[in-house]
Amino acid sequence: MSAMALPARAVRRLRALRGGPQRMALTVFAIRVGSAGFAYVSQVLAARLMGWEAYGIFASVWVWTAMLGHTLTLGLSQGACRFVPADQAQGDLDLARGYIRAGALVTGGAALAVAGLGAALLLLEPGLFAPAYRAPIAVAVCVMPLFALQDYLEGVARSQNWIGLAIAPPYLLRQTLMMAGMIAAILLGAPPRAEVAMACMLAAAAAATALQAGLLAARLRRDLSSGPHRYRWRSWLGTSLPIAAIDLANAGFTFVDVIVLGALVSPAEVGIYFAATRIQQFVVFVHFAVSAATLQRYSAAQAGANRPLLAELVRRQARVTAAATVAVGGAILAASPLLLALFGAGLGGSVPILCVLVAGSVAASLFGPGEDLLTMLGGERLCAGITAASLIAAAGLCLILVPPLGALGAAVAVALASVVRSGLLARAAGRIHGLPTPVWVAGAVR
C-alpha cells in the first residue's frame, strides 16, 4: 500500500517513525536506570534486614513470580506492538480497538486461571514446598496476575509510543512503592522475612497497576476515537502464542542460573549470586530501552512497505545498543566492588561472577536486534525454537559447571548460551528478512 493511499493520520504516523527513537530510548533507559537504582536499594535493604538465608528464599520465589507473571499475557503484550501500530498505519481503527479489548480480556482470564491453579496446588499439596517457602509462595500467587496485567498495559502503551506511561509505572513507581513499603513494614514491627517482602511487592504492584490502567484508559479514549470493534482471533493468537513461548523461554533464560543454583546450593549462596545479577541488570536495560523505542516502529514501517526505513532502524538499534552496552558494562565493572560491598561483607568473590555476566551481555549485544525483527516482522516460531533450545543448553551447562565451579559456573553457562543464542537469532533474522543485524553489517538490505 502506498503512502498516497493511506489516510492522512496514517501517513503522519509513518513519517514520525524516522524521528525520536534515540530520544525515546534515552527516556526508557533513564526510567529503567532510575527504577533499577530503587530496586538495587530495596534489594540491599532486603538482604541486610533479612540475612542471606531469608533473602535467598525471597530471591527464589521472586524469580518464579517474575518468570510466570510476565509470560501470562500469552504474547499479547508484544503482539500489541506488532498489530496495533500496523492497523493504525493502514487506517483500520476498528481492528486496533478490537485487539486492545481482546488482549485485556485474554490476559486477565489467563492470569486469574493460573493464579487459581497455584492457590489450589498450595492448599491441596502443601507438602510440595518446604515450610519456609509456603507463605512467600501464597503471596506470590496474588502478585502474578498483577504482573501479567501490567505487562499488557505496557505493551499497549508502547504500541502508541507513550513510553513514559509504558515504563514508569511498572519499573519506577512499583519499585519505589515496594522500597517504601518495606521500610514502613519493618518500622511498624513486621518480621524481616521473605513473605513480608513479597507482601510489600503485592501492595506496590496493585497501586502501580491501578494508576497505569486509569491513565492508559483515559488517553486511549482521547487519542483512539470510539467506534466498533473487529476481531481476528485466529491471526492474533496464532502469532502471539509463539511470542508467549519466546517470552517464557526468555524469562527462563534470565533466571535459569538462579533456578539451578536454588536446587544445588544453599539459599544463602543463591542470595549472594542473585545480588550480582541485580547489578548486572543495569547492562541488560540498555537493550530493553532501545528495543522499547523501536519495536513498534518496525511493525509500522513494514505495514507502510518502507524497506529503507526498516534498514535505517536496524542500523541505529544495533549500533546504539552495542555502544551503550559497552559503556554501561564498563562503568558497572569499575564500580562493582563498591556496589557489591553495599550488600554486606564477604561479596568480594562475586566480582568475577559479575565480570562474566557483563562480558556475556556485551558480546551478545554485538549481534544486533535479531529477536526483535523475528517477533515483529515474522519468524516468531523459529525465534521461539532457538530461544527454547538455548534455554535447554544453558540449563545443561549450569548442571555441568555448577558442581565444580559453584556460582561462577552458572555465570559462565548463561554467558556462553546468551552469545550463541544472539548469533543464531541474528542469522535467522538476516535469512528470513534480508536485513543483517550484527553491528558490523547492520542495516544492509539484501
Main features:
446 residues, mainly alpha, single chain
Structure, briefly:
This protein has one domain. 83% of the residues lie in helices and 0% in strands. It has 14 helices and no strands.
Explain the layout of strands and helices.
Layout: H1 8-16, H2 21-69, H3 76-89, H4 93-124, H5 131-159, H6 163-187, H7 194-223, H8 233-264, H9 267-303, H10 307-341, H11 351-365, H12 370-377, H13 380-405, H14 407-433
Give your account of this protein's structure.
It is a single chain. With 446 residues, this protein is an all-alpha fold. It has one domain. The protein has helices at 8-16, 21-69, 76-89, 93-124, 131-159, 163-187, 194-223, 233-264, 267-303, 307-341, 351-365, 370-377, 380-405, 407-433. The two termini are 21 Å apart. Mean pLDDT is 81; it is low at 1-20.
Q: β content, as a range?
A: under 5%
Helical content stands at over 70%
Domain tally: 1
| Distance between the ends | 21 Å
Principal-axes geometry comes out as globular
- Whole-number radius of gyration? 21 Å
What would you call the structural class?
Answer: mainly alpha
Total of helices: 14
* Low-confidence parts: 1-20
Query: Care to count the β-strands?
Result: 0
Mind describing the biggest β-sheet? Answer: none
Arithmetic mean pLDDT: 81
Sequence of secondary-structure elements: HHHHHHHHHHHHHH
